Amino acid sequence: MVTIKDVAKKAGVSISTVSRVINNSKPVSNEIRQRVLKIIKETGYVPNPLARSLVTKKSQLIGVIVPDISDFFMGELLNGIEEVGKIYDYDILLCNSYGEPDEELKYINLLRSKQVAGIIFVSWKIEEKHVQAIKNGNIPAVYISKNAREFDVYSVSIDNFEAAYEMTKYLIENGHKKIAFIKSSVQDSIMDSDRFKGYKKALEESNMQLDESLIKEGDATSESGYYLMNEIFEIKNIPDAVFATNDEVAVGVINCILDNGYKVPEDISVAGFNDIKLASIYRPSITTIKQPIYDMGAVSIRMIVKMINEEEIVDKNIYLPYKLIERQSVSKK
Q1: Rounded Cα distance, 278 and 306, in Å
Q2: pTM for this predicted structure
Q3: Which of 93, 157, 216, 316 is the most exposed place for a label (fewest CB within 10 A)?
Q4: Residues 297 and 286 grouped into a single domain
Q5: Regarding beta strands 323-325 and 287-290, do their DSSP bridges make them parallel or antiparallel, or are they unpaired?
């Protein structure tokens, strides 16, 4: 294995000079810089990341904390983070918290000990203790969470209130008068959810009464969607449309509807949220709100890089555009 000592010897300079070139820490002449870089290329020398971090006081690692790595949303988000990270020569250190606040706090402290250059914190619900732990470590951070705007932090999201409002209005305008609402996370109260508030506003504007028996919440899985839809069938209060705030949940809802002898969308329409790849290939394909999931990851790590390089960030809280995607699972009544 080629060492920094070998590079210094071949280039005819000191080890500290090679270190300055690699870390861009102190000025060296252009002639020496080019000579050292030429030797590095010829020998295939790769700097030791641990040794480099000790010199620069920062690593080329970005810590990413997610609540559920198996979630389709998280997979697309991580693609955006990792691919843009590679452009800027950063690697990803991934932590799966399972949505547990104490686990999230544990991983924040772990990432601080690893001297990560920045943290992207994805959470169902951010708490003050998380924000303070990251601030205490003086680490650049970007948050992706429905409640990130409750704190003075950098964040990337869509307008969940407006998106849910638009989808509910779309269902109403297509003639649906009894619309069930299935929320896909129990980490915060359903009544405090921006998506629920958007749903509720659309009903109120159309003079439609809120039916609490048609409001359900559970995990962000197809199994949960199936179970919650079955609860609605058991009380025999059959809706003519279901708005699920997660595409995986929407799949479970559709399966339950079919198993109970109804058709989608002829008898009951179903709308989802996120536009994961499954939404377009499932049959019937799912009408949904398209979140720019990849872009959310890409923008988040670009913000981190800007903070690391002390570049200007115009907007601390970024809203990315969403789009209502019409497919086969919603019909006109």
Answers
A1: 33
A2: 0.80
A3: 316
A4: no
A5: antiparallel
Q: What gap in Å lies between CA 21 and CA 43, rounded to an integer?
A: 16
Quote the number of domains for the chain: 3
User: Residue 260 is part of which domain span?
Assistant: 160-290
Average pLDDT over residues 308-314: 91
**Domain presence at residue 333:** no
Do the bridges between strand 141-144 and strand 154-157 make them parallel or antiparallel, or are there none, so unpaired? parallel
Nearest by Cα to 301 from 148, 153, 91: 91
**Amino acid letter, 263:** K
What element of type H or E holds 257? helix 247-259
Place 147 in a pLDDT band, splitting at 50, 70 and 90. Answer: confident
- 332 belongs to a structural domain: no
Whether residue 327 lies inside any domain: the answer is no
- The reply to whether 308 falls in a domain is yes
3 state DSSP class of 183: strand
CATH number, domain of 102, equals 3.40.50.2300
Claim to verify: residue 297 and residue 153 sit in the same structural domain: yes
The answer to whether 237 touches 213, Cβ cutoff 8 Å, is yes
Compute how many other C-beta atoms are within 10 angstroms of the C-beta atom of residue 152.
9
Does 225 have pLDDT greater than 90?
yes
Average pLDDT, the chain: 91
